[in-house]
Structure formats: C-alpha cells, structure tokens
Amino acid sequence: MQSSSTFQPGPLPRKTTTQAAASQAHKAISTSTLRSARQLHCHQVSPSQNRSPQLIAAATAAAPTNPGASSSGSTALRVLLTREEGKNVKLAAALAVHGFECIEMPLIRHSVGADRPALPTVLRDQAFDWVVITSPEAAAVFLEGWQEAGCPAVRIAVVGGGTGEILQQSGITPAYVSSKATGKTLGGELPRLAGGTDAVLYPASSSASRVLQNSLADSGFSVTRLNTYDTSSVADVSPSQMQQAQDAEIVTFGSPSAVKSWLALVGPELASRKQYACIGSTSFKACTAAGLQQVHFPESPGVDGWVDSVLKAREQLA
Predict the structure, then answer these.
(1) What is the distance between the alpha carbons of residues 190 and 168, in angstroms, rounded to a whole number?
(2) Over the range 266-286, which residues count as b (16 or more CB within 10 Å of their CB) and which as e?
C-alpha cells in the first residue's frame, strides 16, 4: 500500500453564498462563459442546429498582429475547439492572443447519469473525509446535488484550477488541489485525515476511467463512486458545419470522448492530415490508440500547456 501523509483538517466548508448562486452552477460554465465568448475572435459551430457557423464576435481592434499570417495577407491558422458547448472560452481567448482563428464545434455533450438522483441522499446520510472532483462538469453537477441536500459540510479535493473555480463561484473553496492535474496524481497524494474514516466520495462521468479510483484504493481509501452524468458523442453535424471543421488545420481535444467523436465524423483519411493538440496525456493516449500521428500534449494539463501544444502544432505547419 502506498504511504500517505496525515492531514490536520480545518473546519469543513459550508455554504457561503445564497442558494440562488449554487443553483446557477451550470450557468457558471455555460451562460456566463458564452457571454464572455462575445469578446473573442471565434466562430461557433452549434452541433444541434442546421445552420452555417456564425461569427460570435471579432475583437480585431484589440487583437495583436497575427504571427501566423504571411506578408501576402493569408488568413490565420484555424483551430477547431471541441469541448462541450460553453467550455471553450478560455482556450479561445488564449489562442486569440497568438493570432489563431478559432472555430467552436462541440463534439461531446453531457446528460444526467444513473446515480445523479442518489447524490443528495448520499450527501445527507453518509459522511466522507473527502469528495474528489475532477472536471468542471462534475463540479457543476455536484453543486446541484449539494444544494438539494441542504448544502451539508463537505471537504473537497480537485484536479485542476478550472474545476476549483466552478466550486468557488458557489462559495466552496477546495481544501486540496493536486500538484498535477491528473487523477493518478490526486489519488497518490491525497492526504489521510488524522482520526478520519478514509471514506471518499467520487462523483464522476460514467465514461471516466478507474485510474483515480484505483490510485485512491492503493493509498488506503475506501471509494464510493457515483456516475452522476453521462458523456456522449455529438453526431448531428450539418454539411456546412462539417466543412468549417474540415478546413481547420489544428484540432484540439479535451477528452477521449472527443477523439472518438471526431474520428467517427471525419474518418481516418481526413483525420490523418491534421495536427492535434490535447489538454493532457489521457487524450493523447486516445489519439495514439486511434492511430493519429501528429499529436502534441503538455506534461502538466491545463489551458496554458494546451496553448503551448497548439503552438507546437503550428510549428509543424510552418
């Protein structure tokens, strides 16, 4: 069994904002981020509407000179953003600084998971040393269930700063953030509580791997996993939308599900002609398993490293 440090816990975080703030958790990663998207030089390709991509905004007056454009006035390199709707804003903003043209075409969508109805009851009736949350969507779904449970005291550990931000918007400050934004890292370094029960609640996507669970178990924790949401591929893409996506020189992936959806939509021949930039090693491994060759990923997952991967992909196209 892997040894773990002993953590002297402070008081459990309780609700510090109104219930209205907690009930708007999904708006924190959808409505508000889409509002922010209006400030970006980015095209949005909706997967659910049969229409051509429309320009959300063009902040060209404030945009820097495009380093990817030639002296003859060629257009910027196009980057396809494939995260679920409303969650591409940070990456698009960061890429705009480097002169890229972003096309948003969500390749995955979320729905209610089989264990979502049980979440409030579990939070009310059971005690856990930790609740571990690994993605913004998992955080948003958790917050809904937490509110329905009456906002009980919880101690939360997260993978990545973006996930923590969603929780903080509803008044919960994570007690632990892993040193590297991977489930394996969190599972290996999560502190054991002095006098605790070593019980961990893990609300997750039904498609999430068992890496975090196994790592926590190896560290001596007892894990209760609830599949609170499902992740599925987007298949209803119109011909005009597909053309915009096919014209992109670089494709970004934030999950293995997006890799699977992309390959199903475009086929291996077209897929082999693109450069790819992944958020981390999990998506990278899905790409290589699918036979994709020109794939870049950062050692430390996150938006900054993701941008660096896009920049490396651009170097290959120079």
Answers:
(1) 20
(2) beeeebeebbbbbbbebbbeb
Using the structure block, give the residue that is written with the tokens 């060209």. 60
| pLDDT one-digit tens code per residue, 102-138 | 999 999 999 999 999 999 999 999 999 999 999 989 9
Tokens in use for 143? 């917050």
H or E element at residue 315:
helix 303-317
The answer to whether residues 156 and 13 touch, using CB atoms and an 8 Å cutoff, is: yes
Give the mean pLDDT of 264-280: 94
Rounded to whole angstroms, the Cα distance separating 114 from 232 reads: 14
Q: Which strand (E) or helix (H) includes residue 226?
A: strand 222-233
DSSP 3-state of 80:
strand
The owner of tokens 């196009």 is 78
Give yes or no for residue 139 having a pLDDT over 60. Answer: yes
- Rounded CA-CA distance 142/204 in Å is 9
- Span 270-277, mean pLDDT? 96
Tokens representing residue 54 in the block: 């429309």
Q: How far apart are CA 123 and CA 103, in angstroms?
A: 40
Report CA-CA distances (Å) from 213 to 9, 126, 260, 297, 300.
Answer: 22, 19, 23, 24, 20
